[in-house]
Amino acid sequence: MSLPKLHVAVLLGGWSSERPVSLMSGEGVAKALEARGHRVTRLDMGRDIAARLAETQPDVVFNALHGSPGEDGTVQGLMDIMGLTYTHSGLAASVIAIDKELTKQTLVPHGIPMPGGRIVASEELYQRDPLARPYVLKPVNEGSSVGVAIVTADGNMGNPISRSARGPWQEFDHLLAEPFIRGKELTTAVIADRALMVTELRPKSGFYDFDAKYTDGMTEHICPAEIPDEITEACKEIALKAHRLLGCKGTSRSDFRWDDERGVKGLFLLEVNTQPGMTPLSLVPEQARHCGMSYEDLVEAIIAEALDDAAARKAAHEGPEA
Prior knowledge:
With 322 residues, the protein is α+β, with helices and mostly antiparallel strands. It has helices spanning 19-35, 49-56, 74-82, 91-98, 100-107, 122-125, 210-214, 229-246, 283-290, 295-318; strands at residues 7-12, 39-44, 60-63, 118-121, 135-138, 149-151, 174-179, 184-191, 194-203, 219-222, 251-258, 267-273.
């Protein structure tokens, strides 16, 4: 792959709970681009971002934001209005994928296996359990396992959950309740419409939460996962199908739980991440590396798809010459 030398604005930081991760992702991307000879402007997301983008006038924007407003369609809509070319998914895919309930409504009718469950008001949890224990509670529209809690029969949260117990019910008015799926944590990256491989994640303690994801040494990555071929192929097939159904661009990462006592019927997609991490511990760069793609190649491949997509949309808009 050979890209022309570009002026790339790297959007990073912002004010979501995932700001520290975004700063690491964005800095990694910026250094990779500079190593390839591109001109890079780092833009820490602020309320004045429209004015700063207009002043910067980049050839392309690399969106390295995580969480709202960089992953939920807000920034995507802004850049659409400004006519900017940017990486990763557009407005519609971002709006749907950040919302776990909207994602289910989009994917399940097409045969994608996802856990059941329902949205509950946090106030309800202090009266009764929404599902039989064990079950999982998570925010509807946060990423990186922010605010995820596993409610078990022998936990110390109370029964019903106590108002004083620490958990996402203290931070969010509504939560998604899902049955807990025993077994393995798996993930598959899709880059440029190609599913790469499957990684198993083995946290040293607890489950694969925010700290386990971004603290060195807290999670063992088995890459490729030591699982049956039929499960590997099922993960890749589901990840690619979900990527296409949602209309994702650039790269996405699909996270799964697999109950290994149930075979392929025990495989469930949990969520699709449209802005996967690009930190040194992140899963997409790791899978790309195992497939022979360097970090710099990965960054340029994401930009190349954004440029190709923008050119295709421009050609379709302009139509054939008279």
